[in-house]
Fold these 3 entries.
Entry 1:
Amino acid sequence: MTARAADRARYDRATAPLEAPLAIVDLDAFDANADDLVRRAGGKPVRVASKSVRCRALLERVLARDGFAGVMSFTLAESLWLARSGFGDVLLAYPSADRAGYAELAADPELAAAVTVMVDDPAQLDLIDASRAGGEEVVRVCLELDTSLRLLGGRMRIGARRSPLHSPAEVAELARAVSRRPGFRVVGIMAYEGHVAGVGDALAGRPLRSGVVRLMQSAARRELAERRAAVVRAVREVVPDLEFVNGGGTGSVQHTAAEDAVTEIAAGSGLYVPRLFDNYTSFSGRPAALFALPVVRRPGVGVVTVLGGGYPASGAPGADRLPVPYLPEGLRYDAREGPGEVQTPLLGSPADDLLIGDRVWFRHAKAGELCERFDALHLVEGYAVTATVPTYRGEGHTFL
């Protein structure tokens, strides 16, 4: 029996009393992945990206482990909810226009001490001030650096369109603007190199493209390391007591951790290891989050139909944004239908061994987005479900 076949037997046995569709997290794999992130971080703390987990119980589990410290959140409402739930160090990774949230933050000393907001434009400071509604608490601010690689005199850009702050001078100028403004304090810098951390460099069947990606990422790492160090030096001249410099992502943990200027690493997807993280030379993880769909039809030889399945991931549309049939091995989508809103036909010889009511196990393309489809995660240890915990959705929260 192969390792994957053994996993399928475990998952089927553990969840036999439960009705599918359902989602699980294999805790042995989850914990092993957490250990690997800590190893790759080389002694620097790992801040957990909550959007890649979206389950309070699992955030608490990983933060209880040595090597992890703090949460990187994705909306202000989520940040405040996590802080009120006892998470004492929450970094909001994206700017917000949530006026009610800012009023709540500025009026509560405990929230203001626990939550740091992201800023890359003075206009965001104006919005926060206009939202205070009398709240006088000092708002903790993190400045985001644009990590994109610019070539040909800036005519070519590689990397996500995030912050407008690219040079050390631009980041330092915003730091001065924040420091001059009552009610704000710069405490950190964040720089997420998504074109390195979130792009696989070992694409199956595409050696030429994989080589080009590796060359690009090598150049991007060198350029960013020099520029990030210069940014930190420039900001520290304005803010000598800067608390943290956050960088990285699951795919670049060890490279980013090697930079002296970086004090902490951000990662989250590496805990669940969705399918988009299969194509990396820098690390390999164990798939920990899966979902099961029941077989409800057998239309013919080599075909079964499962209930549900149309759970595409965000990003540029493409086949890599779709969940992938994982167990049993050898199933594939019908190219004319793909995963469906209510039903999904699957092709391949393993279909002939599946009966009505049997389960097909899938991996989502991304990590936390799976939790927007399910209100609970069944936690599997060995051959048993040892706990069932709510996702954000299961707690009544759909922050985005």
Entry 2:
Amino acid sequence: MIDREQLRRLGLFDANVPRYTSYPTAPHFSDSVGSSTMRDWISNIEPGSAISLYLHVPFCRRLCWFCACRTQGTKSLSPVAAYVETLKAELALLKATLPQGITLSRLHWGGGTPTLLSADLITDLAESVRDAVPFGSDTEFSVEIDPNEIDAPRIEALSAAGMNRASVGVQDFDDTIQQAIGRIQTFDLTRDTIDALRAAGVRSLNADILYGLPHQTKGRMVESVQKLLSLNPDRVALYGYAHVPWMAKRQQLIPSDALPTPEERLELFDAARRLFVWDGYREIGIDHFATPEDGLSIAKKLGRLRRNFQGYTDDTSEVLIGLGASSISRFPQGYAQNAPATGAHTGAIREGRFSTSRGHVFRGQDLLRARLIEAVMCDFRIDAGEICETFSMSRKAVREMLEPATRSFDGLLDLSNEGLFIPHEARPLTRMIARSLDAYDLSHAGHSSAI
């Protein structure tokens, strides 16, 4: 059994590593990918195929101190309404560029706070989405919900628009912790929001909860998780709080001396993990949990679990197109990211072009290493047979590629001609193992604690 000292010796408590929601990760994007590349990649999507869309709404009524997402505060709906017009124009541009017969597999509205939109704006934007890319027979439409920024008319509008999965941010239910992170959200408000969503016909519900927050103790973690379990979410993301005040200036408001140590973070995670498992949830990858009937559990069982910018997914579409400022798209050819500032993004769309400002064209071993890292992050194993078949490699070549990635982990990993396997006791090291398969320079800023 791996012990705490061994984890410390292997560097778990000191390492800063990517979350690997893409490979290569966003810090390695360059300005070699622009608007014309985005247009060409969209034009070359297979006619009649299904794609996924992500719409980014960067506005928030209030800025939570813990958040490191690209967002901006607003006191009125005027800039939000103007931004929706930009999204509609971007959707029209997408429609004009797409080949014939494209349908929608997954649609996700994130932010920011997409529920900041009024009911009328929600309906207007949803109609524009359907006009640009028709829903398929089993389209999943998910929206990030802030219980502080939702009401009955907006829930009704989202339900009428086809939302069938809601993602509710929780973070933590403890009042002391909420005060320290600038996110006040009572359990009663969260419960009432979830009840209203289910009453409106939303069939699936996700919840996000954080560990590693200021003043968080094992007792407080357990209490928050138990409260969350009483709400019966179908899927839970248990994310580690990334304290990066040099990148997210608002995090300077969070008392760093109140943050748990890396060792304590591991204890917090494990306490929450045990509760989810005891309650019947399946472990999904490194930080998700799902009921046995949830799509993630089924995808894991069938070996179809994937990872993208939203985390773990059962979406198998080859194309994910991001709309809105800073959104990232993934194509078989590479990644394309929109201009991060809303002004620059809006200006490009008004000129009739995509705002793509950076990205990455896959080359060399990118796709091979991307699959190796995804397999590690999703399945805790690399199937040599699959890699050989997909990339026309011999088992010997696969093993030789994996050997350097395993030597530095004290013999904890099982490597054979069948592939690589990470035993359960070594899984806290998963992101570090993924890093060992990364061929890029990892000195870029922006990585988070390995635990």
Entry 3:
Amino acid sequence: MHSSGLWRPIRRRDYVISARPWRAALYLLTSVPLGAATLLTLVLLAVAGSALAVVLVGLPLLLVLVLSGIPLASLERRRLRLVDSTPLADPHREPPGTGLAAWLRTRLQERSTWRELGYALLFATVLWPLEALAVGAMLLVCGGLMATPAVMAAGGDGEAKVLKLWIADSYPEAFAVLAAGVLLLPVLAYPLGALAAGRAVLTRQLLSVPESGADSRLQELDRSRMRLVDAFEAERRRIERDLHDGAQQRLVALSMTLGLARLEGPAEPLGGLLAKAQGEADVALVEIRELIRGIHPQVLTDRGLPAAVEDIADRSPIPVDVRLDVPGRLLEAVESGVYFAVSEALANMAKHSGATRASVRGGVAFGRLAVEVEDDGQGGARLAADGGEAGAADGGEAGAADGGAGGSTGTVGGPRVGTGLQGVADRLSVLGGSLLLSSPPGGPTVFRLEVPCPPARSRT
């Protein structure tokens, strides 16, 4: 269990001399002003909203009251890092559309919103007063003991009350009490750390949505889909390696052998047949090289996504401007999925759009990679409503082999039904990404994809 990791440091011998007691004290101390502010905000919203509800002005205030747990929970997840190094993920999902209405509809339907409201009420009425009492008692006891000599000197009568329990009437006794307070301070650090750990466990339990059986099955389904994607990529690489090291090398050897045979100067028609055979071998060699590049380009493996996209742009019959800012390497499945998505978009553009120029731009923000492909063509592209043919999902990945259309159909001057684009959307959805296509008649066509992009700890 994760909660055991919060208690384990308290049992270590070096706990007192580490930074953890100070972090625990800071965690509990910051709860006091935050909790008081939360209580004041909730009371004001509830009173004002209820009083003004009859004239409808208070309804927005009551709505803000319902949603007030969201910013508090976000702040609590950050404050939790003081005592818990494991981040607490945000359970809220992205709204399906843009605008305030879509955001409100999504938040009000989420179980997390109501759990966070309950946490806000508990925090404002119960938790922070208890934390203030615990921290205040520790400061009162230790501070009162250590301040005894100062109190005695300030009083001028040679005596001081110690915690209102007894009277110290000499400076040796006062300094002995001070030493006791100093020694008691690290002792009280342990219960204070235990309180902070318990508070962190409670926060984590209340602000993380427990997985139901259906959620667990869905997560396992997502994991199994990712394993299938990884297995597919591994098989793709194996086929590429076999073609590169096997069939391609044999064709090179065959072409060289035919060339040597022609140098022997055989009589016609044998010389003509050898020349024709060598030409066919060279054509087959070019085609197999294109096939290998379509299966998995070597530049993507060696230099990463930006270089691979620039390679696509260089080979495009239409000028393409590339501005792709990707820091470091990403997971291999993410790089491959985005590469073939951009390849499919540029192939459709070259074949159907009638564009004279295009651009590819994108970057990473908030843990997601967003890439846009835009052209100045006639527009009219759309995704296939039924997902296209069975083999459409892989059409964009073999763009060189099938003419670059990726299974897309359509002609210049009419709507373009992109079954290859639908296959790209299906592949991105496996990675947790999405595909948006905006292509009004007359253009421009904007192909936008977003996909989570965790850093590649291992590219195997």
